């Protein structure tokens, strides 16, 4: 990656929404990379995690000249003597993420790889990235969305803006619904619904989101789904839902906003999980879970509220 | 999708095997789509699920003119007045699936996508669909089978007729068997077997079925495997086995006909699961399971017979 | 596969490191295949598993002329009369694996498939196989490594020698780390680290190994990861670690050498698992696990030492 000098002014512009306060030098101040704490140098953009108990010590001890911290850190004589610039923000980790993602994380350039196979009636918004070997049906993809290699998007899938799909995700495949015939052999119930995905949704590598049977599978804005998850037909996920890796959400489940689904969790079909509930790692959820409760175990039970 | 008017005659032809009985009008009767109950119109092909307690009410209340129901629904005056046609069948959900799949579900047209990489000695039957970026070795694929994008089929894999493989499935990869050398490093035990898959088998997205070590991994007719499952080397699945998403079946397991493997289940290697057994969601099966028993939990135990 | 006659001399050469002892004929002795025990013939390379209780009986009963066994098997009159050649080695299963893999298992020929999309600055070592539709960024790949179809390797990934990647593996994708903004919406924490993979590492089909956030995810030499596993950002796996199918290892976990992770196990983030520990199938590991202990269950607890 070529070195990019990012000035204090650029950093502050990126943080406008959180009204940063600056202490120390403001002229010719810049950072040119982010780094692991062990590799921090004078030009690293550094930050002090609010959960630490020795925040002042970290801010004073870092070799970095530009530091994001919360208001419990004071601009000390030591920092002044070292010529440091301290930027006070409500949530330094979030502020760091904002600035780092804007300036120091490489992004895919918008464009469609020539190997992508795309239905002529697909509607692809502006500034979309479509990687090698992608296969897209008669779907809609909103502005700024990134579709990585080997992602399959079926007909009747609608994807919002600024979404991110990792490699191998399968969106809109036929759901796993069968009916026995008179010989006892199973025969697929028709699966003609679609998938509706909001804005700022992220979907992990090799994750599968099946389309609804007769209606749609729905994924709300800002919901993030990790690698190797299975979202069955007719599932309805709210906003800001987190589904951690290897989880399985069975058919027609409804999860409210801000639900946290721990790694390797399973949820039985038709269950409802209320907003803000947290399902611990490895939970096997067979009952409805009320809002804001923490459930865990196999079978999952209330741990606390 | 272009609208297709399907006549009562065509519907009844599709249902010949289950001897339907018709009440009400038979002339100029048709349906032109299927739909979610909330979106049912006069020309929806509708059906009444036999598990409902208010079947008569549903049959009378629907705006649809053509309705599939079981013999507990009677052709009432209200239905007559509304000009409805009632088709009595033993299993309306199955009858609906049959008709809907034949007329109202889009299927891949047979053909081989030009990007597929196929071994010159592979044997591909008639009416097979092979999607983009498929990679097939010296394998046999039976009539009418659908192979979706990014599916990998290795040498020594034999697939029957009318099977369906979703994107990213890996069939016949080397099994996970190792032996320690004198330095304690693991070295792969030879994996030279194949995979034999029956007819009407369905395999989900990103599911992996490893080949046998020295003999074959076997998947029986009509068995359905969901997304993101792992079927190890030398596993033998019977007929009509259902393996739900994110399940793991370890090496050399033998599952009888009609076994139901709930989501996110694991089965220890060399275990036998008798015909008709049901393994509940999240089961961790470390013992043999007798036929027709229901086991669940971690470790899985008998729930009932 | 064309038949290859492998002479006793070639077999003994392959076993030099374990100092084999030979009894019986040595002239014109050969094997030309390996096979399932049920299909053994006179020219099968056969072996007697040391865990069997009737080893002598197996060695005498097999129709094969060349047999690998441990020192508890004696070269009997019956074997002499049958003209058998008995090769005594410390670990017959390992010796069989060595010889069979060298002579009787088909390998990919080194080469790069023309459909692979590879960054011009990627460093690809000699004798590497890169299959169809592979997508490689600015990464390094060591000598003799096999990269199967649809594998995605991101920038900043370093892979050692003689590794093996099955189809659909995603190596170096962005980790699942988020921070809430002032509206409660999650925003990705920067993920700019890499992945460092040692020698003789094997990675299963559709398995995902995320890159570190600010530093690297590390996989030690000889570690084997099965199909459909998730290795999160900043995980550090030692040497000879075995991760069985469908397992989930959360962010920043550290696993020592020779740890065995049973199928469908989950490990909470930041946990340490000591060298030689064994995690049983379906374990949900929420605490640190000391070296050489066996833990199992949900939540996982000590079973024995």
From TrEMBL, chains A, B, C:
Transmembrane segments: none annotated. It comes from the Bacteria. One of its GO terms (biological process) is lipid A biosynthetic process. The keyword Zinc does not apply. GO terms for molecular function: N-acyltransferase activity. Keywords: Acyltransferase, Lipid A biosynthesis, Lipid biosynthesis, Lipid metabolism, Transferase. One of its GO terms (cellular component) is membrane. It holds the Pfam family Hexapep. This is UDP-3-O-(3-hydroxymyristoyl)glucosamine N-acyltransferase. It comes from Marnyiella aurantia.
